[in-house]
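Whiteboard transcription, Tuesday session. T.W. wrote the structure tokens on the left side:
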């Protein structure tokens, strides 16, 4: 039995409450060698008020040197092994818009992008077009595209420049490489299967669809091409309630994270769109659930845009939520992130992630603030992120004793 699986045997149902606040991509690095990270720069009086009475640390999201995507990063925070439980982002995007997936559907996440006259990508996110523009372009695609024989095709708006592609009707092969080159100045990649023989039919279907979309969007100024990522076949997944006896509610404003929560059986509020509504629904539903997942997206997108100061501002805005959360007196309160997104790198990174656990039963580190430097001296430092939720469950008295 693995260490992570033992918690499933020890988990018990109680009335105690756990709240996990995830600031996506929170971890950072200084812009200059002698500088500060975004978290170290931000003014966070409310978090720092509880920091001396909490346990903190820098956690390993997957493995040393491994840069996680949002899927494995979050699954680790929810107590799943991020390597064993990894699933392509396409499924998460589809679930995030509450699309009625069927087993065997092949899903891919779509980035609308901009290519120049030579076919090279100049903007991987098409200027982050607004969602209404996304819907117009989606309708344009659906009005003209002709799915290959025997294939049912769905093309759904997610948010901003992102969409979801779902294919149904055949036995598809899911181990297809992304067509996103992950950098500008290069042409979109061809879809390639890791087993060319097994994936031949699926690859040809995808090439045909991409070719059609390219022609349909040729007259668009910004979103004139698509990049496909995270191919995955939809299949059953063990729920967080089955694993940990947690009746859970997800309060996320961004579709993909709703999808991730839905994948593991959390109830999802599909309507909230602001931090104020997250707090409102947390209070409204507090008596109905054991575990609450609150997701903050824009720490991550600010980092991806290389906007150090905006990331600082998002952290400070999120700090203002803390008193409203602590007023509920949760048995365990967690602040964490799924991965680091340093503005200096404009991308996810392999750096360990800052985490804080506040509980009446914690062994306090007595450190004056929550940031990467202080986390290095905390009691959680060095743990794998997959143990964070079980540790919080222990502090909420949701684990039985092991052995006699």
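and on the right, the sequence the group agreed on:
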């Amino acid at each position: 039995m693995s260490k992570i699986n033992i918690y499933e045997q020890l988990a018990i149902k109680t009335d105690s409450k756990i709240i996990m606040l995830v600031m996506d991509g929170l971890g950072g690095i200084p812009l200059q060698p002698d500088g500060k990270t975004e978290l170290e720069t931000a003014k966070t009086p409310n978090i720092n008020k509880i920091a001396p009475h909490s346990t903190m640390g820098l956690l390993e999201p997957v493995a040393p040197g491994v840069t996680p995507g949002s899927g494995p990063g979050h699954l680790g925070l929810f107590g799943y092994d991020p390597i064993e439980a990894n699933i392509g982002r396409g499924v998460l995007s589809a679930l995030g818009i509450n699309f009625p997936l069927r087993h065997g559907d092949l899903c891919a996440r779509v980035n609308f992008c901009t290519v120049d006259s030579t076919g090279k990508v100049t903007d991987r996110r098409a200027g982050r077009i607004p969602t209404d523009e996304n819907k117009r372009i989606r309708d344009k695609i659906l009005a003209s595209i002709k799915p290959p024989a025997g294939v049912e095709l769905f093309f759904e708006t997610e948010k901003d420049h992102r969409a979801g592609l779902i294919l149904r009707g055949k036995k598809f092969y899911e181990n297809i490489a992304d067509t996103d080159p992950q950098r500008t100045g290069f042409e979109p990649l061809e879809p390639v299967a890791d087993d060319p023989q097994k994936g031949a039919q699926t690859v040809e279907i995808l090439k045909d669809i991409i070719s059609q979309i390219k022609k349909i969007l040729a007259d668009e100024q910004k979103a004139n091409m698509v990049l496909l990522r995270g191919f995955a076949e939809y299949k059953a997944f063990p729920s967080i309630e089955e694993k940990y006896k947690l009746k859970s509610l997800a309060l996320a404003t961004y579709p993909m994270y709703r999808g991730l929560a839905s994948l593991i059986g959390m109830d999802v509020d599909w309507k909230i769109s602001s931090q104020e509504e997250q707090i409102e629904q947390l209070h409204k539903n507090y008596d109905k659930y054991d575990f609450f997942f609150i997701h903050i997206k824009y720490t991550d997108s600010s980092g991806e845009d290389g906007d150090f100061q905006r990331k600082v501002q998002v952290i400070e805005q999120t700090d203002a939520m803390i008193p409203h959360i602590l007023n509920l007196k949760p048995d365990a309160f967690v602040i964490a992130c799924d991965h680091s997104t340093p503005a200096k790198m404009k991308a996810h990174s392999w750096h360990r992630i800052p985490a804080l656990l506040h509980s009446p039963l914690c062994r306090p580190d007595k450190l004056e603030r929550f940031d990467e430097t202080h986390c290095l001296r905390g009691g959680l430092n060095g743990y794998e992120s997959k143990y964070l939720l079980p540790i919080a469950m222990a502090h909420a008295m949701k684990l039985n004793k092991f052995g006699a």
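Someone added at the bottom: Residues 3-87+237-395 form a domain with the Alkaline Phosphatase, subunit A fold (CATH 3.40.720.10).
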